[in-house]
């Protein structure tokens, strides 16, 4: 397991990287040195760094002459090393070759690792080795300044007399960095002072951390004012001048034996009331989290879903967990239960009479064995009180449970009640909460915290809505019943439809509409054979529609798209046209439609390219995906659809679920000489040979990209998520409140994809897909890009742009085509490679910066990385540029919410006909006086590629 700690000081639960003490998230990299040193030093360091030497740090200490250190590493770590051991009271189990006496060891990041301490020499600012340099000491992305300046850090480090102090300094810097990042986030509308207060509360959980944090703020005051603009809109001097608000411990004044400890800050209080007041004063937010999230009743850690909480309890509190299981007993019948939720359910269903408010004790937290009248025996202090004592006149009940109306005078009691009573899947509050301490800490860390608001209890809301709907329905039914009674006397044979019509008359039009549409849907649909047999006798779409609808009733439009493709494949000539066309032969069937000119039907001379195998559509494939239809035969460039030779059946060699064939049209065959012995010519004849086909991005080691740890599993419990409960939809809505779909409608509460898996989200927003932490499977409507290429694509030889990619089938607007895959590099590495590759060869670089205008709505800290598909790539590397492209780019988050890990998805920006070349806009920056002519042929061509 990783030895790191979260920003809240809890232990990280992720697996450590092989050979490391920390997971990827907690293992800092030295981006500064790699990105910004002169090239020669960089090269040398890279070689040394990746040569696999165990003593990397030591080596680098020797070669690095730029060290800014004013303090000797040895004197810092060495002297207090054993003091550290004793003060922390732990027995280190060092590897045999580990020599602690030298004291030349890195503190690690985060520290506290006594079992497997970092064995490297601390070099970087006296505390960290190369690998463990924390993010806040690295140069900021813009290359201008560090978040915590080296001077300030080394100054503070000098004041540290013990290992523990260094740890605290480390924590304070970490917190300072998170705060800094969060406040700088453009997407983060949380007021600065709120964030600042949050950080202060966090810091104040440990006096020493708090002190360092205040010192940091004080030392960096000028810079903070300048960067955060505190000076303009907020007077922070009182906050900055005063020490952090430390927990108001009343330890001195109270009898220690009877003291009640606050589980958050360990402050002690004489009674529950005082603790409650303290919670209200100091931990109001945590209290809310506790009520609305899945909080652990033992340690108060919060989780985004129940499964995580269960795992946590089992792992962390095994003993307490077992005890609790043993002790939860129903007093009236003596039954034992595994958890309080089951017990509560049992009491509700079996002993409801015992559950009377008047039997409530004075306090909700029942002592062991107390409350014989109560149906529930709570042996543990943290078991949930299940009684409603709202009727007890002696106690002021301030807090009402939103779900069941029970009242409590103390917040913690309400929290415990909530946890026990409303966290079960069978109970009213079955919508898993996603607002926990961890969740918010994560969001704050990742710069995604938009505001400290909570999604209004969806469960409660939906419960209310459902109740309202039920009540309305009941009223409607009663009205209908009484009406029906009256009607029956007059008209005994009432049809279903007329009954439904009565609903309409009685304010249930919504329900009636739904019922009507359901009735329609149950009608049979024509299968392929039905369509083909009718199409044989049809002259145009009008007559085809008339015949089909005569037999099958009103059909959705997509049936005609499917019909169009079927006809094309079977060479059945039907006059296809836009809606509203009036057939010159007088075919009729569709009403009230304006005259539109017909589209040209597929010509008799139509010869499909060999590459497209029309006969391989199993009829059930249509059932699965009937949307891949020809809709616009105008788009066909018939010239290119001539006979072609297949050069390779699948350039992915089975890596894609849909083979990607490589073809050369007959008229261009002469330009290819397969047997040429020259290497370059062979590559140009067999393009799949010039690179390695991969289906996953390859992260270059030069990047310090965050790992999959920055991802959330949604709380939907089905194999297919629904937008109402999917956390990714919620997160998106929270991050981009104003986002619209491509039709201008608000995106709120919707997946980025429609029910056919086509993107509807307007360009420029991040797409949040579900991921492996979610319970849904591949069929989830919020998993598209990650499922890989699903449309037929052909790599083909173009006349003048080398190889290109064209549609092997008609592709409808919004369809995911492929991902731009390659090696992900940082700017420096990309620059080096560009130099190495030279400019004569075609470029396979995708520079995220060049697309920043498309993605202008992306967040602060937009990653600057480059994807190089020269050596490793997929079909996307063959897609040519067009100034009027038919593909659009979207950044898609899958394994990580960190936008540096975003995938680049290419989606159809309009309907694309079979055989049409696929293009996207490279958006290369145009440099005057140089560049390559653009051969895209678009009417609005910019003239040059770059
Ligand atoms: C990503 S590659 C595309 C595949 C490439 N045509 C091949 O044969 O491998 C980009 C290169 O294709 C060529 N290219 C792409 N679009 C072009 C265009 N519109 N006009 C001229 N050359 C283009 C340029 O050489 C460019 O550097």
Automatic annotation (TrEMBL):
In the record, what terms sit under GO molecular function? histone methyltransferase activity; zinc ion binding
State the InterPro entries in the record: Post-SET_dom (IPR003616), Pre-SET_dom (IPR007728), SET_dom (IPR001214), SET_dom_sf (IPR046341), SUVR5_Znf-C2H2_3rpt (IPR040689), Znf_C2H2_type (IPR013087)
Name of the protein this chain belongs to: Histone-lysine N-methyltransferase
Its source organism is: Arachis hypogaea
Q: What range does the record give for the signal peptide?
A: none
| Main location, first listed in the record | nucleus
Q: Which Gene3D superfamilies match?
A: Classic Zinc Finger, SET domain
A GO cellular component annotation in the UniProt record: nucleus
Tell me the ranges covered by the Pre-SET domain, including all copies.
Answer: 712-788
Q: Domain named Post-SET: which ranges?
A: 930-946
User: Where's it found, cell-wise?
Assistant: Chromosome
Which GO biological process annotations does it have?
A: methylation
Q: Is Heme found in the keyword set?
A: no
Can you give the residue ranges of the SET domain? Answer: 791-923
The C2H2-type domain covers 260-288, 294-317, 399-427
Could you list this entry's UniProt keywords, alphabetically sorted. Chromosome, Metal-binding, Methyltransferase, S-adenosyl-L-methionine, Transferase, Zinc, Zinc-finger
Q: Where is the composition biased (Polar residues)?
A: 380-391
Pfam families named in the record: Pre-SET, SET, zf-C2H2_3rep
Which segments carry the region annotation Disordered? 358-391
């Amino acid at each position: 397991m990783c030895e790191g700690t979260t920003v809240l000081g809890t232990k990280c639960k992720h697996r450590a990287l092989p050979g490391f003490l920390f997971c990827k998230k907690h293992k800092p990299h030295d981006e500064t040195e790699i990105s910004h040193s002169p090239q020669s030093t960089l090269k040398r360091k890279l070689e040394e760094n990746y040569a696999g030497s165990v003593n990397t740090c030591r080596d680098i200490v020797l070669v690095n002459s730029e060290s800014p250190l004013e303090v000797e590493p040895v004197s810092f770590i060495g002297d207090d090393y054993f003091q550290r051991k004793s003060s922390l009271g732990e027995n280190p189990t060092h590897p045999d070759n580990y020599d602690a006496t030298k004291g030349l060891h890195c503190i690690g990041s985060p520290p506290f690792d006594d079992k497997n301490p970092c064995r490297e020499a601390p070099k970087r600012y006296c505390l960290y080795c190369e690998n463990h340099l924390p993010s806040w000491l690295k140069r900021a992305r813009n290359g201008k300044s560090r978040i915590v300046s080296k001077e300030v850090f080394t100054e503070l480090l000098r004041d540290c007399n013990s290992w523990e102090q260094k740890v605290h300094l480390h924590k304070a810097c970490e917190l300072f960095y998170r705060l800094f990042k969060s406040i700088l986030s453009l997407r983060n509308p949380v007021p600065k002072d709120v964030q600042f207060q949050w950080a202060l509360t966090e810091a104040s959980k440990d006096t020493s951390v708090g002190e360092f944090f205040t010192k940091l703020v004080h030392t960096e005051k000028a810079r903070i004012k300048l960067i955060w603009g505190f000076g303009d809109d907020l007077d922070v001097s009182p906050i900055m001048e005063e020490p952090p608000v430390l927990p108001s411990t009343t330890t001195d004044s109270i009898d220690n034996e009877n003291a009640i400890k606050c589980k958050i800050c360990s402050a002690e209080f004489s009674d529950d009331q005082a603790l409650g007041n303290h919670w209200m004063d100091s931990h109001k937010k945590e209290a809310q989290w506790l009520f609305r999230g899945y909080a652990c009743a033992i340690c108060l850690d919060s989780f985004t879903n129940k499964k995580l909480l269960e795992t946590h309890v089992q792992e962390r509190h095994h003993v307490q967990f077992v005890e609790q299981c043993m002790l939860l007993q129903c007093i009236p019948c003596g039954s034992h239960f595994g958890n309080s939720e089951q017990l509560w359910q049992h009491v509700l269903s079996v002993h409801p009479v015992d559950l009377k408010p008047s039997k409530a004790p004075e306090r909700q937290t029942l002592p062991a064995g107390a409350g014989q009248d109560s149906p529930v025996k709570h042996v543990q202090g943290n078991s949930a009180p299940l009684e409603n004592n709202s009727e007890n006149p002696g106690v002021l009940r301030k807090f009402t449970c939103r779900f069941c109306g029970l009242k409590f005078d103390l917040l913690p009691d309400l929290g415990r009640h909530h946890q026990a009573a409303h966290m079960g899947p069978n109970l009213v509050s079955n919508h898993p909460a996603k607002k926990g301490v961890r969740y918010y800490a994560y969001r704050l860390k990742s710069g995604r915290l938009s505001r400290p608001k909570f999604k209004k209890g969806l469960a409660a809301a939906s419960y209310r809505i459902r109740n309202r709907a039920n009540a309305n329905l009941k009223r409607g039914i009663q009205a209908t019943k009484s009406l029906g009674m009256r009607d029956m006397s007059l008209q005994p044979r009432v049809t279903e439809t007329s009954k439904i019509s009565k609903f309409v008359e009685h304010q249930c039009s919504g329900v009636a509409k739904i019922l009507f549409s359901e009735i329609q849907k149950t009608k049979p649909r024509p299968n392929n054979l039905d369509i083909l047999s009718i199409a044989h006798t049809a002259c145009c779409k009008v007559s085809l529609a008339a015949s089909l609808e005569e037999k099958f009733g009103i059909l959705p439009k997509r049936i005609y798209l499917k019909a169009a493709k079927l006809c094309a494949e079977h060479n059945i000539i039907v006059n296809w046209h836009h809606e509203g066309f009036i057939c010159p032969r007088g075919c009729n069937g569709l009403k009230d439609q304006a005259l539109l000119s017909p589209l040209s039907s597929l010509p008799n001379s139509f010869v499909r390219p060999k590459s497209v195998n029309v006969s391989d559509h199993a009829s059930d494939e249509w059932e699965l995906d009937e949307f891949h239809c020809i809709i616009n035969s105008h788009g066909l460039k018939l010239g290119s659809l001539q006979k072609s030779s297949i050069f390779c059946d699948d350039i992915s060699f089975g890596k894609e679920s849909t083979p990607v064939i490589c073809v050369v049209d007959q008229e261009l065959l002469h330009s290819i000489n397969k047997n040429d012995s020259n290497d370059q010519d062979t590559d140009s004849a067999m393009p799949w040979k010039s690179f390695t086909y991969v289906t996953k991005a390859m992260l270059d080691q030069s990047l310090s990209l965050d790992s999959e740890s920055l991802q959330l599993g949604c709380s939907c419990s089905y194999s297919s998520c629904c937008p109402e409960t999917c956390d990714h939809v919620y997160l998106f809505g929270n991050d981009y409140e104003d986002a619209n779909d491509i039709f201008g409608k608000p995106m709120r509460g919707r997946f980025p994809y429609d029910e056919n898996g086509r993107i509807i989200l307007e360009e420029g927003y991040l797409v949040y897909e579900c991921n492996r932490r979610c319970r849904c499977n591949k069929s989830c409507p919020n998993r598209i890009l990650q499922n890989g290429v699903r449309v037929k694509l052909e790599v083909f030889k173009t006349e003048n742009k080398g190889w290109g990619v064209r549609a092997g089938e008609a592709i409808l607007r919004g369809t995911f085509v492929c991902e731009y895959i390659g090696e992900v590099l940082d700017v420096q590495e990309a620059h080096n490679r560009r130099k190495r590759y030279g400019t004569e060869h075609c470029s396979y670089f995708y520079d995220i910066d060049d697309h920043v205008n498309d993605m202008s709505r992306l967040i602060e800290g937009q990653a600057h990385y480059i994807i190089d598909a020269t050596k490793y790539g997929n079909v996307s590397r063959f897609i040519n540029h067009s100034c009027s492209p038919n593909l659009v780019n979207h950044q898609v988050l899958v394994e990580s919410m960190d936008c540096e890990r975003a995938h680049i998805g290419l989606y159809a920006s309009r309907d694309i006909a079979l055989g049409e070349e696929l293009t996207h806009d490279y958006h290369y920056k145009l440099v005057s006086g140089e560049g390559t002519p653009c051969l895209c042929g678009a009417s609005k061509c910019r003239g040059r590629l770059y």
